[in-house]
């Protein structure tokens, strides 16, 4: 279909066949372009109408929710389908778009309310059997749908809708964490199933788990042994931290064994535990392991010495003042000042010390009045 | 009694408006911080309820405007979903009368509003 | 003589332009495929972000925003206010007044009730004399620090801000940029989720010409009205959505836009801060960070968040745009030259073997090859030697392919970002995409060549005055 090329072949790489090919390819690309353009524009147009419709529905639904809460305020009237029929929205609720919007708005609202209003919302949720919808979503294969529906389950405090035990060992970390939070929120004794976790917990997860447990009014900590004596270090850390936070002094923990644990994080949380909850038995041992700790733990140990130390510990403090970094120096001098009478004499002695550095720090401490 | 409510969640704003109207308040509902500042200057409400995170101008600026620019002692209740200590303290230091963390109980809010209004009436 | 010259030109066309075309087209295609994957994953991961929990977390790193301001008197109050309203919990705002000649500092002092504060810092990075550090008497603005220093340019101001800052991370932000309220929660996510040391996180910068902005907040986002900003927006779509997303995912990002990005403060100080001698200081810093981490064998990541959180005004006049492009071309050339030891050096992994060569060929050499191709075609036309048939088919091919990439960028934007609500906006973008290869592209080629000429023959190193229209223009509209 083309004229013969005027150029001799050695002067140009492209022969007529290639040129034809390039022509066809370009043409196809052009058609694809046109298709994309029309697709995007059509989609945009339909989106626009849908959004307008949705906004309309949203306004109606919000009006209804507000009326619903006000209507039942202070009355002990049962919330039945008959009561629902008093509202003009009732007929529209059969439509899918209304259901979707209402479902979303209930959870949106649920997050800011407490007490009676929250219960009223939950009754509406059960009345419209949204729990079945949620159960369906909990079987989704998309992880982000799972996370959002588990979070919804927590926020509505729906204990009996669905069993989420399977999700605790889900390969996706975010699904695991929210399932774990839900499970803890709904259970009276979370320790047995925490001990059965298959994945190690990250620092962030430990923090979240402790936060969730703190919100609960747990009475029974007997099973915490399962965590503290677990093989998985991150679960041990969780157990020890919980024991520290809830001040479980009656626990019979093998302190020596855990202080010598192979995992650094376990050792660290153990030091924090005995310095907060222990008695003065461990001064000698803590001094011994002082060297290998990180700065926050070293400070904790120094605090422990301040609480339980005696005259024999003064040389150790001097050693710290001489050999460690400024932050620890300041800390150790503070301990000297507070520990007992003799250490305070020592503190005063530091004031007239020949080391300019130490004099400066001591003076700094006095200036800052502690 | 006039109450100004600044809250960006339309759903909550609607509920609060309905509730306060039921309790015989005159409600000025503002969906963002800037309109709240504008409406405050126009309407002189007896009490202000405000969120902290809002579009255009946040709750801090509203409190600052009422206390410093207008030098008024209108009671202000902060209703926010933050529990970050520094933000709570900042809002109280700026001159907020009370702080309620979301989630909250409607009746508790009404009680606190009534108490604050009584206190400010006695003072004048 | 003439015919031998023509022969060499023909050979250049065959062996220079053609491989170049194939190289860039394959590059674009690969990047597009990669980007779509990354964008899909990113969108899914961000459905369930809980900003409240995030902001209360004890693991949240502190960020200080360093915003250099030079002669911004008209807009400074509004701009600081917009920065102060950001939601991130652990944030400091450091505005560096780079020796402005107008009333920038006075206005800030007056409005924010600033006073000179006792502030301990060391000159860890070299910068011009810091005259004073101001803090507000008002508790509501306690996150604000204003630094007054002697004029020394943008890089110098950023270094001064770095000396002042004590945060884990810092963000460099052009003071006239508009930042979304939840920007930093999103930008910090790669840091929280990545077990490796994240030294920098890049973000998307987009254009807000002709959008409705009120009190430093975006009310309605629109595609710009005139052709020049629209075509720039299209360029930004391609570069940020298709290009950098792909580079970011393989840890090969060479440039984090100077208008918006966060960096690990300690590492930036370790590598020596911003380089004052180049106009491409943003790219230079990223390259130096790569070099440092790779040389010291520290596992690291230069991450990228493919979602727009930062809006800025594009130049609307040809003169200012040409100056900007001239500067970009000079910056690229300078950075590539400064770090030429990275080229094909296996020690520098992805950067040395893939990113650098790609930049060298597509970004730096591209304009020259295209320019020569155009010149060659012109000569052929003038001498009447052109084969119109081949010429037409090749032009048709180049046109449809380049439009295809622009249009797929728009499609990707629509599916994964979807910021523009009006169908009219997209129609405008499509028309611009079709017009771009004829009207706009030759100009960018010219500017880039001119930039390189200025750098190598005229030794220009200055920034050139940037006159800004600022928010206020948009407010009026």
Question: What count of helical segments of chain B does DSSP give?
Answer: 5
Task: Supply the helix-strand structural class of chain B.
Answer: alpha/beta
N-to-C SSE series of chain B? EHEHEHEHEH
Strand order of the largest sheet of chain B: 2-1-3-4-5
Main sheet summary of chain A:
none
Gyration radius from CA atoms of chain A, angstroms:
34 Å
How many distinct beta strands of chain A?
0
The fourth-level CATH homologous superfamily of chain B is Response regulator
Question: Quick check: average pLDDT of chain A?
Answer: 80
Gyration radius over CA of chain B: 13 Å
Strand content of chain A: under 5%
Estimate nothing, just give the exact number of structural domains of chain B.
1
The biggest chain-chain interface is: A-C, 41 and 36 residues
Highest CATH level, the class of chain B: Alpha Beta
Oligomeric composition of the shown chains:
heterotrimer
Give the helix proportion of chain A (percent range): 55-70%
N-to-C span of chain A: 96 Å
Return the structural class of chain A: mainly alpha
Architecture overview:
Chain A contains 19 helices and no strands. Chain A is an all-alpha fold. In chain A, helix 1 (16-71) packs across helix 3 (96-110) and helix 13 (264-277) runs parallel beside helix 15 (295-308). Chain B has a single domain (2-123), classed as Rossmann fold (3-Layer(aba) Sandwich). Chain B has five helices and five strands, in the order βαβαβαβαβα. Chain B has helices spanning 10-22, 33-43, 59-69, 85-94, 106-123; strands spanning 2-6, 26-30, 47-50, 76-80, 98-101. The radius of gyration of chain B is 13 Å and the shape is globular. Chain C is built from 15 helices and twelve strands. In chain C, helix 7 (227-249) crosses helix 13 (423-439) and helix 10 (318-338) crosses helix 11. In chain C, the strands form two sheets. Chain C has a ten-stranded mixed sheet, sandwiched between helices. Chain C has a two-stranded antiparallel sheet with strand order 9-10. Chain C is 55% helix and 16% strand. Chain C is of the alpha/beta class and 477 residues long. Chain B: Residues 2-117 form the Response regulatory domain. Chain B: It holds the Pfam family Response_reg. Chain B: It comes from Pseudarcicella hirudinis. Chain B: This is Response regulator receiver domain-containing protein.
């Amino acid at each position: 279909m083309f004229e013969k090329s005027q150029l001799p072949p050695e002067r140009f790489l492209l022969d007529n066949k290639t040129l034809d090919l390039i022509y066809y390819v370009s043409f196809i690309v052009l058609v694809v372009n046109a298709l994309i353009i029309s697709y995007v524009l059509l989609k945009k147009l339909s989106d626009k109408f849908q959004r307008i419709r949705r906004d309309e529905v949203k306004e109606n639904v919000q009006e209804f929710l507000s009326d619903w809460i006000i209507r039942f305020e202070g009355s002990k009237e049962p919330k039945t389908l008959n009561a629902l029929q008093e509202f003009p929205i009732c007929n529209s609720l059969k439509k899918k778009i209304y259901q979707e919007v209402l479902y979303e708005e209930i959870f949106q609202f649920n997050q800011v309310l407490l007490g009676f209003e929250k219960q009223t919302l939950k009754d509406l949720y059960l009345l419209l059997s949204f729990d079945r919808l949620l159960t369906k979503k909990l079987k989704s294969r998309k992880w982000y749908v799972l996370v959002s529906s588990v979070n919804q389950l927590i926020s509505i405090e729906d204990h009996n809708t669905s069993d989420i035990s399977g999700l605790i060992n889900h390969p996706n970390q975010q699904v695991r964490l929210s399932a774990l939070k839900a499970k803890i929120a709904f259970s009276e004794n979370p320790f047995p199933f925490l001990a059965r976790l298959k994945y190690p917990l990250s620092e962030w997860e430990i923090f979240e788990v402790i936060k969730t447990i703190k919100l609960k009014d747990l009475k029974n900590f007997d099973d915490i042994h399962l965590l503290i004596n677990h093989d998985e270090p991150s679960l041990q850390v969780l157990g020890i931290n919980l024991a520290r936070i809830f001040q479980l002094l009656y626990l019979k923990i093998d302190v020596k064994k855990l202080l010598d644990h192979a995992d650094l994080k376990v050792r660290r949380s153990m030091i924090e535990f005995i310095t907060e909850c222990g008695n003065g038995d461990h001064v000698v041992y803590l001094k011994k392991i002082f060297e290998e700790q990180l700065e926050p733990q070293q400070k904790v140990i120094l605090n422990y010495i301040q609480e339980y130390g005696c005259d024999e510990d003064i040389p150790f403090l001097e050693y710290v003042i001489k050999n460690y970094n400024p932050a620890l120096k300041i800390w150790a001098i503070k301990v000297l000042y507070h520990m007992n009478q003799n250490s305070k004499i020592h503190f005063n002695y530091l004031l007239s010390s020949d080391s300019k550095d130490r004099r400066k720090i001591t003076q700094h401490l006095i200036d800052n009045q502690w | 009694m006039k109450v100004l409510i600044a809250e960006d969640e339309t759903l909550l704003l609607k509920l609060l408006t309905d509730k306060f109207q039921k309790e015989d308040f005159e409600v000025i509902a503002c969906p963002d911080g800037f309109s709240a500042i504008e409406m405050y200057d126009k309407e002189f409400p007896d009490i202000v309820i405000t969120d902290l995170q809002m579009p255009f101008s946040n709750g801090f600026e509203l409190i600052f405007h009422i206390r410093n620019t207008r030098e008024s002692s209108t009671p202000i209740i902060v209703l926010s979903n933050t529990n970050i200590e520094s933000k709570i303290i900042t809002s109280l230091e700026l001159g907020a009368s009370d702080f309620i963390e979301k989630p909250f109980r409607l009746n508790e809010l009404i009680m606190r509003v009534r108490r604050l209004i009584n206190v400010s009436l006695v003072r004048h | 003589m003439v015919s031998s010259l023509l022969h060499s030109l023909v050979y250049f066309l065959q062996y220079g332009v053609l491989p170049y075309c194939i190289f860039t087209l394959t590059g674009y295609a690969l990047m597009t495929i990669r980007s779509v994957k990354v964008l899909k994953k990113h969108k899914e991961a961000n459905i369930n972000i809980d900003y409240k929990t995030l902001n209360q977390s004890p693991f949240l790193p502190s960020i200080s925003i360093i915003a250099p301001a030079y002669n911004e008197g008209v807009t400074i109050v509004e701009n600081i206010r917009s920065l102060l309203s950001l939601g991130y919990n652990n944030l400091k705002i450091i505005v560096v007044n780079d020796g402005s000649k107008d009333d920038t500092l006075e206005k800030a002092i007056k409005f924010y009730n600033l006073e000179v504060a006792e502030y301990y810092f060391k000159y860890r990075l070299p910068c011009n004399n810091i005259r004073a550090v101001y803090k507000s008497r008002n508790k509501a603005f306690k996150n604000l620090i204003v630094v007054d220093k002697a004029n020394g340019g943008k890089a110098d101001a950023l270094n001064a801000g770095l000396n002042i800052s004590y945060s884990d991370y810092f963000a460099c932000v052009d003071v006239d940029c508009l930042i979304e309220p939840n920007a930093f929660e999103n930008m910090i996510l790669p840091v929280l989720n990545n077990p490796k040391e994240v030294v920098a996180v890049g973000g998307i910068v987009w254009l807000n010409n002709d959008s409705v902005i009120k009190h430093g907040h975006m009310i309605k986002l629109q595609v710009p009205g005139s052709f020049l900003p629209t075509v720039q927006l299209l360029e930004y779509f391609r570069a940020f959505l298709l290009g950098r997303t792909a580079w970011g995912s393989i840890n090969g990002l060479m440039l984090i836009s100077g208008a918006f990005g966060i960096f690990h403060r300690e590492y930036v100080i370790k590598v020596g801060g911003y380089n004052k001698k180049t106009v491409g200081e943003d790219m230079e810093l990223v390259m130096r960070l790569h070099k440092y981490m790779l040389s010291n064998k520290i596992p690291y990541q230069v991450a990228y968040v493919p979602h727009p959180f930062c809006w800025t005004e594009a130049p609307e006049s040809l003169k200012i745009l040409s100056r900007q492009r001239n500067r970009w071309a000079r910056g690229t050339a300078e950075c590539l030259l400064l770090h030429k030891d990275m080229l094909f050096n296996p020690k520098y992994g992805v950067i040395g073997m893939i990113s650098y060569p790609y930049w060298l060929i597509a970004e730096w050499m591209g304009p020259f090859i295209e320019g020569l191709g155009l010149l060659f075609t012109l000569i052929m036309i003038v001498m009447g030697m052109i084969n119109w048939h081949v010429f037409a088919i090749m032009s048709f091919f180049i046109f449809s392919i380049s439009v295809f990439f622009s249009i797929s960028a728009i499609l990707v934007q629509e599916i994964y970002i979807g910021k523009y609500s009006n169908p009219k906006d997209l129609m405008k973008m499509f028309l611009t995409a079709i017009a771009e290869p004829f009207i706009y592209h030759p100009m960018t080629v010219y500017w880039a060549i001119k930039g390189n000429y200025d750098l190598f023959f005229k030794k220009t190193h200055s920034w050139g005055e940037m006159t800004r229209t600022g928010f206020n223009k948009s407010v009026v509209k």
